[in-house]
Amino acid sequence: MSKDTPQSSSRRHFVGMAAAALAAGSLSRLAFADTSPAIGKITEPANGDKTAIRPFRVHVPDSQLVDMRRRIKATRWPDRETVPDESQGIQLATIQGLAQYWATGYDWRKCEARLNSYPQFITEIDGLDIHFIHVRSKHENAMPLIVTHGWPGSVIEQFKIIDPLVNPTAYGAPASDAFHLVIPSLPGYGFSARPTTTGWGPERTARAWVTLMKRLGYERFASQGGDLGGIVTNIMAKQARPN
Predict the structure, then answer these.
(1) Full-model pTM
(2) Is the dihedral of CA 183, 189, 192, 195 positive or negative?
(3) Is residue 51 part of a domain?
């Protein structure tokens, strides 16, 4: 396994262009770090092996969405700032507008359907359930690539890069630029389980990602990440270098 897998210059360029397309300020943050039946369905293996790759689909009950909107609307707001600009921080009107959007404008069901349009899975690594999207390219010799989101992000940030990287010929790029994509949720984010002990820092996460890729049958692969995901990616690269 190596994160230093040679790549063509066109492939490197394509990865960079696709990654740059991420929505830096996406409002589509997952507010759940839970894989319980209350918000999703996990297909359990017959032998009870939690390390098996288990299909997963998201479904948040209406009752939870109603309660979330109720709590947002019940926010007790501070007094308005004493200046007409942002010199004292984010302005009250801005935050109230954002809260109004979350309470009445955001369509979670649309986001949920988009999530469920991709193959999602759960597998236990080092005692923790890890959620991930895994989309394989139809092109032969596609390069396996694990993409890690940042803080406070989620796999939703990667929606825009999935099809261009998996199906590059549809976007004018050669088939040699194709990737098999693995997009995990960091521990405690999205639908990955919350750690119950300390120690789940970038180093442990990097080791878990190597385990995940090998479990999927990828002995050699590339990795990409931004923000906290970039730290995890850099550690993976260091771990792969020979001493």
Answers:
(1) 0.81
(2) positive
(3) yes
In a domain, 83, yes or no: no
Starting from the edge strand earliest in sequence, which strands make up the sheet with 222-225, in order?
40-42, 54-58, 120-125, 128-135, 179-184, 143-148, 222-225
Q: Give a yes or no: residue 18 inside a domain.
A: yes
d(CA 223, CA 100): 37
CATH code: domain of residue 117:
3.40.50.1820
Locus of tokens 């080092």: 126
Length of the chain: 243
For residue 44, what pLDDT is reported? 78
In a domain, 152, yes or no: yes
Span of 2-11, 26-35, 101-110, 221-230 with lowest mean pLDDT? 26-35
Beta bridge partners of 190: none
| CB-based contacts of 31, cutoff 8 Å, min separation 6 | 68
Domain ranges, residue 151: 9-24+32-60+110-240
pLDDT at position 100: 96
Q: How many domains does the chain have?
A: 1
Per-residue DSSP letters for 103-146?
Answer: III--HHHHHHHHHTS-EEEEEETTEEEEEEEE--SSTTPEEEE
Residue 214 CB neighbour total at 10 angstroms: 12
Mean pLDDT over the full length of the chain:
86
User: Is the per-residue pLDDT at 26 higher than 50?
Assistant: no
- What does the alpha-carbon distance between residue 24 and residue 178 come to, in Å, rounded to a whole number? 24
Q: Is the peptide bond before 152 cis (omega within 30 degrees of 0)?
A: yes
Cα angle 14-17-21, degrees, rounded to a multiple of 5? 135
For residue 30, give the amino acid letter: L
